Protein: 3-hydroxybutyryl-CoA dehydrogenase
Organism: Acidianus brierleyi
Amino acid sequence: MKILVVGSGTMGHGIAEVAAISGFDVKLVDISWEILNRAKEKMLESLKKLYEKGTIKDSPESIMSKIEMAVTYDVAKDIDIAIEAVPEIIDLKRKVFSELDRVAPQHAILATNTSSIPISDIAEITSRKEKVIGMHFFNPPPIMKLVEIIPSKYTSSDTINEIIELSKKMNKIPVRLKVEVPGFVSNRIYFRLLQEACREVEAKEATIEGIDSAARYKLRLPMGIFELADYVGLDVSLDLWNVIVSRGATDVKCSLFSEKVKLKELGVKSGKGFYNYPAGKYSKPELPKESDVKGSRLISLAVNEASWLIENKIVNANEIDTVMKYGFNFPQGLLEIADNLGLDSILYELEDIYSKGYSAYMPNALLKNMVNNGYIGRKSGKGFYEYS
Ligand code: 3HC
């Protein structure tokens, strides 16, 4: 099977690397050789780490030999699947898809790694709407196991099944949304974590380091919330936030992120965000081990969002937790954490913040019903999960 990856930035070159590791013939296209050569160096660096650890058996050089690079779409003429990973600009995506549609064989599936643009809007530019689908990878793609699969209103079930199978062959764990929602599951939860972290700091309830310490040492997440935003990119994170809000989610007014973006402090890639990253390389910020921030408050808005996703039958609790465990490396799923902390405490925090005038915190009906019926998590034997 021949896979074309379009765009060789952080996500694109990571996806190409994963496809090559899985034994596929890969083509990687970008607009210049300079960009492609940088991507090649990054892939080699990553492959060397994986080889040294024994995660891959073939040498980095032999895996790299499976990746053909090009600066023209002509290489798409014999592909089976394209995965687009260009910047999150709708006009650019549509241009790429119309080119792919023109050059790729009729049977080829055209997938997009977009994190926020509606799949249907991209599909509509092509003459094969039923073969266009969202295939959302997580950063860094060689490490993160999740692939979120997002069918548009046009996507056929054959296309969905083929992409689920492909994800498995790429050694990934697929989670399929029943229908598309802005931000999908992952980024709807991620942006709610950002919003609450931002709100607590702006309302002077907490400091950035206090939030991140609670995330890392109380909730045992691999990164603090601001640290994760630096890692993802503050521009990317702000774009996600704005797109999800512009498509109907209730906003939490908070300007910490937009101020950083205005200053061009974009996180790891620019060397500075909420923390400093000399040479544009990620390194773990030092954080205090103790913090006053409550874990239940920090995740309350995200749990409310998860509850909304379940209520609207987009995914179930288990699928949400799979997203958080394999897309964000949470040690436990978000809803497992919520059950452990107690859904009554989560509801208490939501009601408290809501009473301060933040309408986004209006408790979701499903969550409220669970608590009212005594299903408050592990301590009552039932919450999002049942416990014996
Ligand atoms: N390739 C190969 N190996 C890599 C790698 C890469 N690209 N990146 C990291 N690694 C390896 C390191 O070499 C290291 O290996 P070792 O344990 O053998 O030394 C291991 O992974 C851990 O890396 P570090 O020591 O540098 O640092 P951490 O222990 O903090 O791990 C992390 C880094 C894996 C990124 C971890 O912090 C993590 O899981 N963070 C959460 C990341 C996350 O949430 N990603 C999702 C973002 S959202 C998204 O992508 C969606 C989009 O739409 C916004």
About this structure: Residues 48 and 54 are 10 Å apart (CA to CA). The first helix runs from residue 10 to 21.
